[in-house]
Amino acid sequence: MKSPAAGAVGTAATATATNGEGVEKKSINPELWQACAGPLVNLPAAGTHVVYFPQGHSEQVAASMKKDVDAQIPNYPNLPSKLLCLLHNVTLHADPETDEVYAQMTLQPVSSFDKDALLRSDLALKSNKPQTEFFCKTLTASDTSTHGGFSVPRRAAEKIFPPLDFSMQPPAQELVARDLHDNVWTFRHIYRGQPKRHLLTTGWSLFISGKRLFAGDSVLFIRDEKQQLLLGIRRANRQPTNLSSSVLSSDSMHIGILAAAAHAAANNSPFTVFYNPRASPSEFVIPLAKYYKAVYSNQISLGMRFRMMFETEESGTRRYMGTITGISDLDPVRWKNSQWRNLQVGWDESTADLKRPRQPGMPDDDSSDLDSLLKRTMPWLGDDICMKDPQAPPGLSLVQWMNMQQNPSLAHSMQPNYMQSLSGSVLQNLPGADLSLSVRHVITSNASAKQRAVKCPKAASASTTA
Amino acid sequence: MKSPAAGAVGTAATATATNGEGVEKKSINPELWQACAGPLVNLPAAGTHVVYFPQGHSEQVAASMKKDVDAQIPNYPNLPSKLLCLLHNVTLHADPETDEVYAQMTLQPVSSFDKDALLRSDLALKSNKPQTEFFCKTLTASDTSTHGGFSVPRRAAEKIFPPLDFSMQPPAQELVARDLHDNVWTFRHIYRGQPKRHLLTTGWSLFISGKRLFAGDSVLFIRDEKQQLLLGIRRANRQPTNLSSSVLSSDSMHIGILAAAAHAAANNSPFTVFYNPRASPSEFVIPLAKYYKAVYSNQISLGMRFRMMFETEESGTRRYMGTITGISDLDPVRWKNSQWRNLQVGWDESTADLKRPRQPGMPDDDSSDLDSLLKRTMPWLGDDICMKDPQAPPGLSLVQWMNMQQNPSLAHSMQPNYMQSLSGSVLQNLPGADLSLSVRHVITSNASAKQRAVKCPKAASASTTA
DNA sequence: ATGTCGGCGCCCCGCCGACAA
DNA sequence: TTGTCGGCGGGGCGCCGACAT
Predict the structure, then answer these.
(1) Residue in B66, B247, B249 nearest the CB of A276
(2) Domains of chain B with bracketed CATH
(3) A160 in helix, strand or coil?
(4) Dist. CA A248–CA A165, nearest whole Å
(5) CA of A230 and C1' of C16: distance in angstroms?
(6) Is the peptide bond before A394 cis (omega within 30 degrees of 0)?
(7) What's the pLDDT tens digit per position in A186-241?
(8) Would you call B259 and A257 a contact, using CB atoms and an 8 Å cutoff?
């Protein structure tokens, strides 16, 4: 890999997929994978250090099986709530049946890390991915019915599709697009009707039936660097694939996760995890630098102001604000003093009025309806686009923390009260700290129809604010 | 349960399915489940004692994921190669997407058992299930094309379907059949053409497309005790559902199985397994009495004659004979002295000429073509229909063995040489001993086209013979 | 006994602009 | 700007017996 510290998906992950027998298959386009995963997903870069949360991994399995953990899981007292790991490898995958995207990561627990490792992780974070041009549309009843084709949003057609020859009557062309598996789909793109509009006609119904799409699912188009048209899907139907339960019991799965992590931690041997961004409630493999910033650059306390990113229905992002209303262990028996979902946050009602920042590929939508904004309630880790409020509580800089790590006695004494006395003079150099992994409950400050919307998110991209 | 010792599926398993949230769903018809599972599948009865083989369980996962076990699996030195368990519960399931049948079993390791338990297990074995009337047909290209309907085998239509009114011209009726999920399918059943034949026309294409069936898949019809028509499917496409790999790594799955069993064995606490009869190479939960008969009623030795049951293409059964050519550990490092696949068997060429016993619901097929006979190479545990050969090596009777169990010093000294000296006078009371779990490699005694067919089966219902 | 095919009737898929939101 | 609908033309679904194996 030429640029090991790059954080963008395109360079962070080797975009190859191997099946169970080790046969190399078609590679997966990283930009398309990213588009299908959603705007807030950001995989850590291979070769960097990460923090792995067994609780979060277990949560993903529970979400995939729609089943909570049972009581018969043995304790693994030697398995800490978080593991410092070296991320050896990241490969992108897509389910051949459903096109669901997921990533495979090979992690190796390490007992310590050096300054270079931390800096590499921080550098990978800062390199923002080049947002490729894409558009995403939720399919309507007309789009998916057998009665007609696909109505293309005007801006999308003009921005993504090759330009039409308007001297033709009507203007039309043949579009060729490839999906995640490199399958080719061809559509007739025509500009007709009264008033004029862009339509995909011939070939569209084959796509709809072939991918088994229904109204409410989403389809997206992007152009890669070679100006090739790619397309992907995102299913609205969030019913968990209960399929896996025919192979392994839920208990065995959870035990398998914990035992595999415990075994790897005891032997410092590599282990493999799968991260499914659209099934998992939260990322459970966090870049070391991001983890540091979340935990050590701020003094987490009750009443602290909070900012978090959500994904909107149309694949946009939206800030949301709230206040920390509680700090406690999610599972005090099994995972004591874990930072996984130890914060409760009450969300502001007023933040619904915040304007969503315009992003490329995002249709213009100025709706302030909270219900629609949060229909896609799966939370995501956000880009580091949050600005630090000058009145934020003081924290430690990256350099300060590294120095403390090299001075064990000092690090050991690093308590909230001590941290509070440190100077926050270098804070402005730090992007917002992502605390999403710590967020548990979402509480509305006002009883209204909004309660329906905010019940679902359990965690999301979050930043402390004043 | 009225008859706790019954071994038939209908009474052995509670035919209810619960989803992940504990909501009771429609019950699954046990006869239909049995028909879909195949003629050789025989689930142990709830309430009886069984022997659980972690190796076999792991094999099922490997087969489901089409991936062998990797090296990174930790050793579980305290987990024996077989666990004596009390089978608390058996529930029948069917995958809602694929109709694949599987069973969920709750096992609790026990350190000992009494005479009643052994007798109950033996009693459950002896109760033969009432073979319901059914027929099974492999779909042809014409059956699955959009050009026409389904050609019903004559005997099948006469035996299973309600009789037609032949005063009509042409004779026709509407058939209503329910699948495993209690979904209703209606077909027009007509007797027409030159020469006359039974056909399913209107409604058939909806079924084919709805179940996503292709030529080579099989469809089966049965009548339940209320004369209701039921239908099921068996897919020929044995491609493993790689879906589960998007949730959990193969390593974690294997670790999960072993760790769950080890934890349950250490605490004598219950654990849950899923048995998928059409994906698993062999059953890995064996009735205690069947295990006993396999291991203790015969002196296993090199050169011993061997008999095993296979499932034929048309859902029939077929005996196959061979000779034990080797006895050794499948995995000497991890599972020393395990009885799982420790026998190699060379199959007789001449056994291809054996007549298959006529069974209800099985179309007449006197083909002696070995290739076609063994196309369905997945092996199954068979019914106890094998007769004991008078010249068989001597073994222990059930009563003798029980007495030895109550006399530890005697049981401890129970060695092959010792057993050989015992009288075999009560042997005729014993059905053939099923050794299928121990069979590993299949070696043809003659190089020919038959080699292709016999490479695949790794184990099947087997009995020692002279 | 039953798998495949030519014939062909008619259903419904799918392309069109009209309209409205 | 774009979702839904009536209109309608034609491709293919699906029912039929012929024929072969």
Answers:
(1) B247
(2) 134-234 (2.40.330.10), 297-466 (2.30.30.1040)
(3) helix
(4) 56
(5) 28
(6) no
(7) 999 999 999 999 999 999 999 999 999 999 999 999 998 888 999 999 998 666 66
(8) no
